[in-house]
Amino acid sequence: MAETDVPVITVDGPGGTGKGTVCSYLAETLGWHLLDSGALYRAVALAALHARLDLDDASMVAELTNSLTIRFRVAGADMATLLDGEDVTGAIRSEDCGSAASRIAVHPPVRRALLARQRAFQRPPGLVADGRDMGTVVFPDAPLKVYLTATPEERARRRHKQLIEKGISDSLQRLSANIVERDARDRERSTSPMKPAPDAIVIDTTTLNVGEVRKRVSGLVRGRFPGRPDIGRL
Ligand code: DC
């Protein structure tokens, strides 16, 4: 099977919309590969912070990106991220690393350096790709593109709850401010801005719970890939 014949489901949108949860569910249930592209940007950001690079220096960050080995390893129901062999799964999830990821993600050479690595995830039997530009740039020919949205207030509330569950305390106010700042940067950058592809199906998850988002997206997948035996597992 040619790589381009391998089906891809892209799920884009800002953080806190339920993207990660629905992507893990789809990949696990279908037995398809999962690309968490945000984790790639976060791993580069972490390496740049460790190296004390100027995050606004596109060529230095791109050079660093090309030198890094970033791997994912299935760890139970979750995915571990390995940066040059070191497990950075927890470290890349901090708010600071997320903000740094959004900053280094504006640089075209950094995005170019990650493009082939992302496309390499398109392997049989299929791929679920989670990000900001999966449907617009990385997999423009994907047969199913979903774009999730939710109000910034609801996303901040979800993020706050998630952090409390992890035992991390952060003020709702700071989280809201971060979300607004990151959204603006991700949306307004000139290369691969966060936006729905023209053929994406947009779902507003503000008033939906996890089960409802899962149900809606599963319905779209079933409709798009009729007759595939793996789809019957949804
Ligand atoms: O989805 P996330 O919160 O892990 O992503 C962190 C940042 O990485 C996000 O604010 C912007 C950047 N990013 C990107 O520019 N393109 C992607 N496909 C994924 C993430």
Please name the defining characteristics of this protein.
binds 2'-deoxycytidine-5'-monophosphate; 234 residues; 9 helices; 47% helix; three-stranded antiparallel sheet
Protein architecture, described:
A hairpin with a 2-residue loop joins β4 and β5 (86-87). The protein has a single domain, classed as P-loop containing nucleotide triphosphate hydrolases (Rossmann fold, 3-Layer(aba) Sandwich). The chain is α/β, with parallel strands linked by helices and 234 residues long. It is built from nine helices and eight strands. It has helices at residues 19-30, 37-50, 58-67, 95-104, 108-119, 134-138, 152-165, 172-188, 210-224, and strands spanning 8-12, 33-36, 70-75, 78-83, 86-87, 127-131, 144-149, 201-204. A five-stranded parallel sheet has the order 2-6-1-7-8. It has a three-stranded antiparallel sheet with strand order 3-4-5. Helices cover 47% and strands 16% of the residues. The radius of gyration is 17 Å and the shape is globular. The two termini are 24 Å apart.
